Amino acid sequence: MIAGPLSLLLHLFASLCFLGIIWYVQLISYPQMRNVDPHDWNAYEASHTKRSFWIIAPLFVAETLGTFGVSIYYWNSMSNLILINAAMYTIAYGFTFGVHLQLHRLLGTGHQQKWIEQLISKNWWRTIA
After folding, report:
1. How many domains does the chain have?
2. CA pair distance 1, 38, nearest whole angstrom
C-alpha cells in the first residue's frame, strides 16, 4: 500500500522543514524583534504574521496529516517511536496554540518588550520538541 510510505515522506518533509524554521525563529527572527522601533512595530508585526502564515499553515497541515498517517500505518512496527512523536507534536502545537498565538495577538496590538521576551523564552519548549 502506497499510503504508508507517502505518509512517512510527508511527515518527514514537514518535520524537517519545521526543524529549520523553529531554529531560525528562535535564534534570529524572535530576537530581532527587540530591535524594531516601537513606532514601526504594528506594521512590522502585521507583515511578519501575514507572511509567516503562508509558510507555516501548509506545513502544519502536512505535518498533521503525516503524523496521523504514520500513526495509522506504522503503529504495529513502531509504536514507541509513534508515541514519542505524538508527545513532541502535542507539546509543540500545545505551546503554539496555547501560548504563542496569544502572544502574537498581544503584540499585534502594540510593542511590548515583555511580550517579546516571553515569546523568546517560551519558544524554547517548541524548539526542543
Report:
1. 1
2. 55
What phi-psi label fits residue 47: left (phi over 0), alpha (psi between -120 and 50 degrees) or beta? alpha
18-24 long-range contacts, Cβ below 8 Å, gap at least 24?
18/59, 18/63, 18/92, 21/55, 21/56, 21/59, 22/123, 22/126, 22/127, 23/127
Domain span at 9:
3-128
Residues 69-114: tens digit of each pLDDT: 998 888 888 888 889 988 999 999 999 999 999 999 999 999 999 9
- The 10s digit of each residue's pLDDT in 16-62 is 999 999 999 999 999 999 999 999 999 999 999 999 999 999 999 99
For the record, the C-alpha cell of 100 comes out as 504563542
